[in-house]
Each structure stands twice: as C-alpha cells, then as structure tokens.
Amino acid sequence: MTTILAQAQTDLRLDATVLDYLLVAFYFLLVLGIGYAARRSVSSSLDFLLSGRSMPAWVTGLAFISANLGALELIGMVANGAQYGIPTVHYYWIGAIPAMVFLALVMMPFYYGSKARSVPEFLYKRFNRTTQRVQAVIFALSSVLIAGVNLFSLGLLLEALLGWSLAVAIPVAAVIVLAYITLGGLSAAIYSEVLQFFVILALLIPMTIAGLNRVGGWDGLTQAVAGGPGGPEELSSWPGTTLTEIENPVWSVIGIVFGLGFVLSFGYWTTNFAEVQRALSAKSMSAAKRTPLIGAYPKALIPLVIIIPGMIAAVLVPQLQTLKAGGQTDVTYNNALSLLMKEVLPNGILGVAIAGLLAAFMAGMAANISSFNTVFTYDIWQDWVKPGKPDRYYLQVGRWITVIGCVLAIATAFIASGSGNIMDYLQSLFSFFNAPLFAIFILGLFWRRMTGTSAWIGLLAGTAAAVIVNILTTTGVLSLSSQAGSFVGASAAFIVGVLVAMGVSLVSTPKPASELTGLVWSLTTKEERVHSAEGDDAGWYRSPPVLAVGVLVLTAILYIIFW
Amino acid sequence: MAEPNGTRAGQDAPVSMTAARLFDLRTVLALLYGVYGIVLLIVGLVSTDQADIDKAGGWNINLWSGLVMIVVAALFALWVRLRPLKHAAVEGTAGDTAGPPGH
Predict the structure, then answer these.
(1) How far is A281 from chain B (nearest CA, A)?
(2) Tens-place pLDDT, residues A59-117
(3) What residues of A are in contact with residue B26 (Cβ under 8 Å)?
(4) Do A348 and B40 touch (CB under 8 A)?
(5) CB contact A220 to B (< 8 Å)
(6) Is the confidence metric ipTM above 0.90 for this complex?
(7) Does the keyword Transmembrane helix apply (chain B) (predicted)?
(8) CB atoms < 10 A from the CB of A168, how many?
C-alpha cells in the first residue's frame, strides 16, 4: 500500500476545479455539523462510547458495512478487480456473508445479551481479567497503528491526486476526524459513516455506468476481458486459482472455502471490535441482530460497482493495459480507481467522487479511533488502572484518549512515511490476532469446561503459530504464495489456538456454572437468546432469521450468475 | 427498550437525551443528496460540452446523477414526513419504523 500512490510520472493529478472543491467542502461541513449536533446528546460515558445504546438498526447496519468499506479496502478491491477480475467477488460473498449471518444469529445474543461494552469486556465475563487485558492492549495498539496507516495513505492520495503536501494533508485530515469524534463520540462516527456510505455510492454507481458505456456495455466488457491477457478465467469466480495463487484447482477451492470463507472471515467479522461495536450501539436485541444482516445486503451487492469498474479500468486505461500485458509502466493496480475516475468523470460529479474517497479514508480512521477510545476507557482505564471513579470522570478520559489516539495516529503516519515496509509488516502481524481470538471465542461459547487461563494462553499460542508460519513463508522455508501463506497461517493459528486452549482447560479449574449463564450456549435458556418481536421490532421483514435467509439466497443467486 | 440495565456507566443518563432522538439522520441525508443533486443538475444543464459527454460514454452524467440524487433526497424527506421522529418519553426511534431505506 505504501509505495503505490506516490509514483507520479503518469499524470495522476485530477483536474479538480473550484466547483469540485466546494462539493468536497460541503460534505465536511455536514460532518462537522453532525459532530456539533451530536455533542448535545453526550451526557455519560456510555453515550460517548456506545451511543447510549440507542441507534435504530438501519443506521447501525449501514455504519457496520461502512466501517469496513474504508478507502484502503476500496482502492485495494478495485485493484484486485483490475488484476484478477470476477474471482475478487469471493472477498465479498463467501469471505463475508456467512460470517455476518453467524455473528447476527449465533454470537449477537451473547454479545448484546451479556451487556458487555466491548469485546475485551466480554472476554472478562466469559474468561478472566488476564484475557481481557491481553486482548485490550493488543487491540488498542493495533487500532492506533492502523489509524496511522489510514492517515498516511490518505496523505499519499491527497498528494498524488490534488497536489497537497503530506505535512499539510495528514494533520488536516486528523484534525477533522478528531473534531467530530471528540464532540459527538460514537454517534458522530456512526452518523458520518452512514453519510459516507451514500457519498461512496454516488461515486461508484455513476462511474460504473459511465465506464460500461465507454467499453460498449457488459458485452463489450466481457469480450474485451476474455480476449485480453487474463483470458476468460477472469470472468468466472471458481476455482479462482489466480486469486489464491494456488495452481491446483481443488486446493484453490479448499483455500477459498476454509481459509478465506471460514478462518479469516469468521475471525474478522465476529471478533473485530470496530465492527461489533456498531451492533452493540443498537437499541434492542432485535436491532443488534439485524445490524450485521442489514449490512450484509449492501456487502453482497457492492462488488458489482467495485470489481466491475476495476475490470473496466484494466480495459480502458492504456497504462493498465500495458501492466496487464506484462509491459513496463509506472502505474500499479492500486492506481486503478483514481485512473478510472480521471478517465470517465467530468467536473461536478468528480467533486462528489473526491468527497466520497476522502470520506472513506476518514471513516476508516474514525472507526479505528472510536473503537480504540472505548477499549482504552473501559477495559484499560476503568477496569484496570483507575477503577471506581464517577462516570463523569470516565467521560473525560474518553475525550482525552480520543485526542491522544489521534496524536499517536499522526505520529504513526509520519513514521510510516519514513519507512513504509515496517507498517505493512505490522499490519499483517496484527491481522494474525483475529484467527486465534475467534478460536477461543467459539470454544468458550460451546464448551463450558473451558477455563480463563486457557483462553489467554490459547490466544498467545495461536498467534505465535501464525507468526511462525509467516516467517517460514517469507524466508522461503515453506514454498507457498503469499495468499496461500495467509490462509495456512490463519488456519494454523486457529487449530493451535483450539488445541492449546483445550489442553490447558483440562488441567485448570473452570468457572462455576452460575457465572456462565448467558455466556455459554448450553447454560443459556432459549428465552434469554430470543429477541422481542413487538413494537419497533415487530413485522416479518424485521425478523433476523428471515433477513438471514434472504441474504444467503441473494448471495447464492449472485454466485450462480457469476459462476 | 433503549437502555439496558446493569451497566455501571451511563445509568444516570436520561433516556430522552440519547443521540438518535435529537436530530434525524434522514434529514441530513436528504440535505446532502439534495444539495449535491441540485448542483450537479445545474452543472449538467449549463456547462456540459461535448467533451464531457464523450468522457462519460455518451450521456450527460452530471444531469442524470443530479436528477437521481434529487429523487433519493425527496424520498428521504418523504420518509421523515411520514414517520417523524417521536420525541422524549415516547419509546422507539424514528427510522426503524420503516425498515432500511430503499436503495
């Protein structure tokens, strides 16, 4: 990510006019206005850090998907579309939808029902303080570092597209994020994520239509892609050998289904607090369950306006054609989105598009910062360092740690601009924590005998397994492609996490059953797991199982179309 | 049903002060798409030359994007009108009563 946007021999600069800048400015005015308006609603730490658990499901659902639809994701997936074509859909379908349904129907009753305010606090309730603290520290560190990476990438983008210098772009972007989160807390972050979702659509949909017109419609695109260097393989999702870099088609499918679809995806969607936090801010159990499900519908459909533009860019932009044919050029696939914007969008809609891209960067950073401040305030400060103070005190801590988090993110961004590879490495390192975390979650949920000590030992052992696999792959001891390496690493982390946790559980003392009610499947009655279906939660179209079946059917239909 | 019991923090917060009740996100969305739509519509009408049309593959992208955004903004405004935010002690927050927005 770090080397991509900077090289600018090809003119990447967008010809933005005053009009475009005005449209961008209007967006930021609205976002700051939201922060200011939301300020009046913050009277406790729970208001600030969890929106007072008051959000309607459509808002949390769109914020849920928006927090994931950051700019790095957007740029990376358009790039994958340009490079691999249709197989990229696996990241959106099998790599997301089953896990989101599982989070909604199986895990949410425990998350929301336990009234935990964060993922680490849930770990405390189910396991013990040590597990909570290990996870809280890891999460806090990784959030700040990833916020810094986001900020740095935003700086690079502003430099390449608009000609702003890094030294100006990074602090300005950070101050805007800081302003609306410190004022309005999570409410402001969630509301701007929903706004961001709609601005992104206003970027992606017209760009896709314009691009398709330019290449002669869907038929023109498929002909050009099938006749291009990638060949017809780029038009079907299975077996996806180019995407996985696994030559054997059977192993490629297994890699996609188990590696991406199970270990990586379940690890990310069910335990990442930046995502789960959006559901915890919902106003009822039913709304909390609906949050990931409402998010799943746009998640299933949005690759149509992300991957197809990527494929169009590879056909339409001469430099990308050269790149695909294996020639020498100064652009990379990560330039695909901005090159296509430049190619097909005239001024006016271009301003909306730039606003959308900037919004996506800031929302990505805001999601990291707003989950960081919650974990820091509740799990590190209130439950560990300084317990027993009045709520007003923790609200102040929450505000201050938001400021400190932003300052740390700026520092990280400037360090990243000095040594980009370190950041890439750290980012992949932190991604190793998801798979073992999911392992102890799932084991703890279904096995009441699992003990607190086994949880944090399993977590660390699983992580160590992933790190070892990663070192073996990068040093070439294991000859795996980078993609296959990450599937194998995550699977190893999961398996080692489960085995070690089981072993340690057998030699340590479990919590008494009375403390595990509502936290373990077999000790939770059906009544505790169901949600109300009255008032605002009434109606078949608000039933979580109905929504879940609907999105699974939708995904199946999409897979049949793009088989 | 907004405020579950049993959390240490936030218990003292009056329910009516929660964020979703104070201003309506649907209005903000209508404002955003409304302003963007009108600006794009005007740009599409007054300052579109053949080069712009060719760039987008033969259609007036600003004009049509503007029109669609105005329609969506009107739908959000209509939604606010039909299901206004219920205030203070009344349970339930607007927005949720009508399901996800149509898009």
Answers:
(1) 10
(2) 999 999 988 888 778 888 898 899 888 888 988 999 899 999 999 998 898 889 888 88
(3) none
(4) yes
(5) no
(6) no
(7) yes
(8) 12
